[in-house]
Design goal:
By secondary structure, the chain is mostly helical. The protein is built from seven helices and no strands. The longest helix has 24 residues.
Length: about 140
Amino acid sequence: MSILDLFDSGFKKRNEDHFAAIVRVAMDDGIITDEEKAFLDRLARNLDISETTYKEILKDYQSHPINPPTSYDRRLERLFDLARMVHVDHIQGDHEELVLRKIGIGLGFSPENVKYVVDKALTLVANGVDLDTFIEEIRNMNR
């Protein structure tokens, strides 16, 4: 096995765990709504989750650990990716923002300020900022 194979499998596993954590958040009320399902479908495509893996995760999402990144910058990178996906797919409305807030809490943002963080993230992405600017702006709002 080459080092590239090790990197690819580790990257793939992180994506699967990240996806499973989002499924767990979506399932916190016991059901996945049509809107959440559409969001999960798009996310699975973007994370390169196979259909087989997707079905396995939906069936047994609790067997995947929730591993929010320990690094604040990694959390911001994941939030940036999710906010971009919401923006690119033209997802609008309170429901989608609520799902993104729930995911934000799953990523390790505090429930007290997750609404503000998500609102700021969506605004920054809508303004077309790059990842570095996004991280800097989110960091500065907490000062």
